[in-house]
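Changelog excerpt

This revision adds worked examples to the README so contributors can see how folded entries look when concatenated. The first example is reproduced verbatim below.
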Amino acid sequence: MSEKLEGNLLVTGSNRGIGLELVKQLAERTGLDAHIYACCRAPEATGAEALRDLTTQYPGKITIIKLDMSDEDSISAAVQAVNEQIGAGGLNLLINNAAIIGPSTPGPLSATGKKDMMEVYETNVVGPFLIAKMFLPLLQRAAEMHSPEKDEGEKMSCRRSAIINISTLISSIAKCPETFAEAQMYPYRASKAALNMVTRCQSEDFKRHNILVTAIHPGWVRTGMGGGHAPLSPQESVHGMLTMMSSLSDKDSGMLLDWQGNTIPW
């Protein structure tokens, strides 16, 4: 079953690329009762101008929240800011999209140092882990407010309470022999493989609260990170992901799926 996403929705890394397009399409596709919390590191900087324009285009629909994924105090402050605005409501959908790469593609072993490994891991793994942990009370509140009968008996859905971790095909250990030559990217690959494990663990931990946790590969997308030769536009990728998210249910929790809903092996 596919329905519109609704309620309180939060996207990290929302000032550009996939994150910006997620905010844009969520604003277009959700109803009047939905509200989007768009998180980025520097809301007042020139790099967030397109995001600020969206708040003007969709007045009252989007709130920009300052959030640095590598800073625990910043995460805590963002959680507090969202909590104050939501009030008695809960958080229905948390999309952990923010991520970094290092060194630049193809990122061979010879160009990769300890600093690259640690910085990428901190943002791509520790950040999403802490955000899910700190937002858990709001996710629980949303899960408790939502009736599963609305979803034809399914206990979990992105309309009720869910965490979506944006992962990647190159996080797949099984597919590494197919993908390694084109992009070695040790820090990024390792961090996203670790994020997959966080996804799997939290899906087991949070299912007692009826909170869905799933990892999604958005495809190879033409963004600052994906490069100009990628086959997918941000519009195509996000349209596919949101369509797929609106249909996720119990059976999809703890999985790694691509933007079209196909299962990717670990």
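The second example, added in the same revision:
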Amino acid sequence: MSRSYGGQTAADRTAERRARLIAVGFEVVGTQGVSALGMRSVCRAAELSQKFFYESFADTDALLQAVYRAALSRLEKAVAPAVASGDLHAVFEAAARLMEADPRICRILLVEPVADARLRGYVRETIPAIALAALGDRIVGSPDDPSVRMHFSALFGAMISLFVEWTEGSLGTDRDAFAGHATAVATQLMSELGHHPAWVTRSPPDL
């Protein structure tokens, strides 16, 4: 049994140190970019020695993945009710509200992967399944099919551009109008994808 100090077990303290490192990494990547993420600077900001960094992470790549997954988890949580109801407009509205409140999430999930190969890898591993869940039964297709991935890229590119511009404040302040436009763009793109043999489109459910 692990000994408790100040009401915390050794496992509790390890988890708390890991959370501090992720929080610092989140702030660094979300405000300065991946290039600013360094083990020494993160440890300094978290007020932890380097030995505690290696207690939780093998290297900064592992920390970067944890930061990405933390941002992704916040996005998934924010849009979960809308995804469950099949309301695409509400999905975009919830995502817009989240990124408006915390622009770091937009930078981590959408901006930095454009230039960083590691983050692009994480995007390839996670986003297609999430997109299929958000789109519901509007589109059925395998994200493992290269031709399908090309169509996903077109859709993602449009959404990335919209959300980056929204987060930077260049598209006004009407979140409902933004979500409506994003829904219209996505719906149009999905309609075009339906002409590809790898895709099967269905009518959107009654909302």
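Reviewer comment on example two: The mean pLDDT is 85. The chain has nine helices and two strands.
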